[in-house]
UniProtKB/TrEMBL annotation:
Record flagged with keyword Ribonucleoprotein: no
Protein name: Probable membrane transporter protein
A cellular component annotation (GO) from this entry: plasma membrane
Major site of localization recorded for this protein: membrane
Key words of the record: Cell membrane, Membrane, Transmembrane, Transmembrane helix
Parts forming coiled coils: none
Source lineage: Bacteria, Bacillati, Actinomycetota, Actinomycetes, Mycobacteriales
Top-level division of the source organism's lineage: Bacteria
Family: Belongs to the 4-toluene sulfonate uptake permease (TSUP) (TC 2.A.102) family.
Keyword Membrane: yes
Native source species: Rhodococcus oxybenzonivorans
Length: 257
């Protein structure tokens, strides 16, 4: 029965990933904790595995289309990977209830970002053919990369809902390049987070394979048919769903335990 639930939840998360991109992964941890009854230390590595593989699959066409800013991805990864290990370390010493309340807050921020998404651009950090103006970009990209990495390690989220606004609004990248660059950053941070959470954690690999397998398959299928879906409307409704799940997490964590 547990494997059946894992297959079903994985498929739902995968479809959301395929239709919405990285934002769909925000529900992976709540699905594993409340849907399958896993502890947080078991749910986070499974979530990171799904996020990392799905992002890697999504990044391949972006790489082929040259829609990745490798320098910016390198900066975010260099700052984010150590912060990911730091976030994992902090998560291990905090009570699960505290982490879940924090996760609910992150979900609210993600939902707000989805509702506010206007595709605006900020001040560009690139100067003609000379590359990136690091004097202008470093004070923005280094803290942003570290913050995203810390959240990845602490909560098991990819952080695309924070990376893309940072790349577009703070650093001035085009949206198409920001999406591809974000996927590469998520792959790097998720891999680091997975490594940091595997030590000393007992993982049910049957559940992991079932959840991750259907999530990845669902993501590939949904991304293929995604052009036929009104993604703007879907994103709004998904944001409302995120708010509802965040409220449930808070009620369950604070009032029912």
């Amino acid at each position: 029965m547990t494997l059946t639930v894992a297959l079903a939840l994985g498929a739902i998360i995968g479809v959301l990933l395929g239709l919405l991109g990285g934002g769909g992964s925000i529900l992976a941890v709540p699905a594993l904790v409340f849907g399958l009854g896993l502890d947080l230390d078991q749910a986070i590595p499974i979530s990171l595995l799904v996020i990392g593989v799905a992002s890697l699959v999504g990044a391949i066409p972006k790489i082929r289309e040259h829609h990745v800013n490798w320098r910016m991805a390198g900066v975010f990864a260099a700052c984010g990977i150590p912060a990911t290990f730091a976030g994992s370390a902090v998560g291990r010493v905090l009570p699960q209830s505290v982490v879940m309340v924090g996760f609910a807050a992150v979900m609210v921020v993600a939902g707000i970002r989805m509702l506010m998404d206007r595709g605006d651009a900020g001040t560009a950090c690139e100067v003609g053919d000379s590359g990136i103006d690091w004097r202008r970009c470093a004070p923005r990209s280094i803290p942003a990369g570290a913050a995203v990495g810390f959240l990845t390690g602490l909560f098991g989220v990819g952080g695309g809902f924070l990376i893309i606004p940072a790349l577009v609004l703070m650093l001035g990248l085009d949206m198409s390049v920001a999406v591809g660059t974000s996927l590469i950053i998520i792959v790097a941070n998720s891999a680091a987070g997975l490594v940091s959470h595997l030590s000393g954690t007992s993982i049910d690999w049957a559940i992991t394979a079932a959840f991750a397998g259907t999530a990845i398959a669902g993501s590939l299928i949904a991304s293929h048919f995604g052009t036929r879906v009104d993604t703007d409307r879907l994103q709004r409704w998904f944001a409302y769903l995120v708010f509802v799940v965040a409220a449930y997490v808070l009620v369950d964590t604070i009032l029912l335990r």
